[in-house]
Amino acid sequence: MGARLPVGHCPAWSPRDTERRLTIPTPSQTVGPFFGFAMPFEGDAHAVAPGSDGAVRIEGQVFDGAGEPVPDAVVEISDGDQFARCGTDREGAFHFTVRKAPSFDVLVFARGLLRHLATRLYLPDANLDGDPVLEMVEPERRHTLIASAMEVGLRFDIRLQGDQETVFIQL
Q1: Helices and strands per DSSP (H, E), number in the chain
Q2: Distance set, CA 158 to CA 24, 63, 90, 169 (Å)
Q3: Is the residue at 101 inside a domain?
Q4: Does some domain include residue 39?
Q5: CA distances for 15 relative to 11, 18, 114, 129, angstroms
Q6: For residue 23, how many C-alpha atoms fall within 13 Å in the half-sphere facing its CB?
Q7: Residue 110 covered by a domain
Q8: Is the pLDDT at 147 greater than 90, yes or no?
Q9: Do 71 and 93 contact (CB within 8 A), yes or no?
Q10: CA dihedral in degrees (109, 112, 115, 119; nearest 10)?
Q11: Residue 40: which domain range?
Q12: What's the CATH code of the domain at 119?
């Protein structure tokens, strides 16, 4: 049996002092702008080839609570076998090419977030009656989950905070 430490003693490797206060950051507290080099892969924004049958372009911007673009976020979109990922540019803009589906799961990774944010994206022409996720959202906030039609493709903006904050789902 190994030697016992005196009560209240903290070994040098412990992130807590003798009063149990954190003295160094733990991994869940360490956040950095790792997304721009650690997550991208070739063709990451295209779940299907642009111009292919049934392909639709979805574009939007990520905004912070002050309405400013978030230039270093990563947005992921998925539905069944479709998966795409896009980092935002200086204007907070992202885009995807996907096969049309009634809805998509969306994850947002950004500086200042200890965990990613999850939401849904619904197509404007989808039959939304009886959707279990949408039914949990207050009617006056549902519009934050529905993309809008543009001349070419769809628009879906993500607002991290504020009056028009996108509805996020706790997983």
Answers
A1: 2, 9
A2: 33, 6, 15, 13
A3: yes
A4: yes
A5: 9, 10, 19, 51
A6: 11
A7: yes
A8: yes
A9: no
A10: -50
A11: 35-159
A12: 2.60.130.10
Q: Based on the structure, what is the number of domains in the chain? A: 1
CB atoms within 10 A of CB 47: 22
**Of 8-12, 44-48, 83-87, 142-146, minimum mean pLDDT range:** 8-12
Write out the two tokens for 110. Answer: 């950004």
Rg of the chain, C-alpha, whole Å: 21
Question: Widest CA span of the chain, in angstroms?
Answer: 73
Residue 149 located in a structural domain: yes
The closest alpha carbon to 41, from 97, 85, 81, belongs to 85
Is the full-model pTM beyond 0.85? no
**69 token code pair:** 């673009």
Please name which of 141, 140, 142 lies closest in space to residue 128, comparing C-alpha atoms: 142
